[in-house]
Design brief:
This protein has about 160 residues and is α/β, with parallel strands linked by helices. The chain contains five helices and seven strands, in the order αβαββββαβααβ. It has helices spanning about 5-30, 50-55, 95-105, 125-130, 135-150; strands at about 40, 60-65, 75, 80-85, 90-95, 110-115, 155. The strands form two sheets. A four-stranded parallel β-sheet has the order 1-2-6-7. A three-stranded antiparallel β-sheet has the order 3-4-5. Strand 3 (about 75) and strand 4 (about 80-85) form a beta hairpin. The radius of gyration is 16 Å and the shape is globular. Residues about 1-15 have low confidence and may be disordered.
Length: about 160
């Protein structure tokens, strides 16, 4: 049995506590047919653990937080997704992400990719450059292809 570094354990605990707190706060509100409950599933610490340990029932929408490209604008490079890692720190594959999305869809959740958020590593793509007039069409095409292949909606947040 391997012991996780303290930083990783604290980060996982904070993520789990955040999901629990959001679930409690949202469940405390009176739900109606038009009510939307949004939950964020961290894409850089493994998505399956929160998916298996948090009651996802109250959520109507799940945001994969966050999806960012590499410097060439690729979200998927071969089978690996840029800047999405599992609990071991290994790259998430498109197939494993597709399984997570299928599981969420089975629970009648709408799944969206939240792009351009979070703290970007220095080796990530530069959104200002990727959305410049010369590269904008290619970037939009990449995002549309990613969303279509994985049956996702896309939410953008450029700060």
């Amino acid at each position: 049995m391997s012991i996780k570094p303290m930083k990783q354990c604290i980060s996982h605990s904070v993520t789990t506590a955040l999901f629990a707190m959001i679930t409690f706060l949202l469940a405390a509100r009176t739900a109606s047919a038009e009510t939307v409950f949004i939950g964020y599933l961290p894409s850089t610490k493994g998505m399956e653990s929160p998916l298996n340990s948090v009651n996802m029932t109250p959520y109507t929408h799940i945001m994969l937080a966050f999806v960012n490209p590499d410097p060439q604008g690729r979200i998927v490079n071969g089978e690996a997704l840029a800047y999405m890692t599992d609990e071991k720190g290994d790259p998430v594959t498109a197939a494993s992400l597709n399984n997570v999305i299928k599981t969420l869809h089975t629970g009648a959740h709408k799944v969206m990719a939240s792009i351009a958020g979070g703290i970007l590593p220095g080796c990530a793509g530069d959104w200002a450059d990727l959305t410049s007039p010369a590269k904008r069409d290619a970037t939009v095409s990449t995002l549309e292809h990613f969303a279509t292949c994985l049956t996702l909606g896309v939410s953008k947040r450029l700060e």
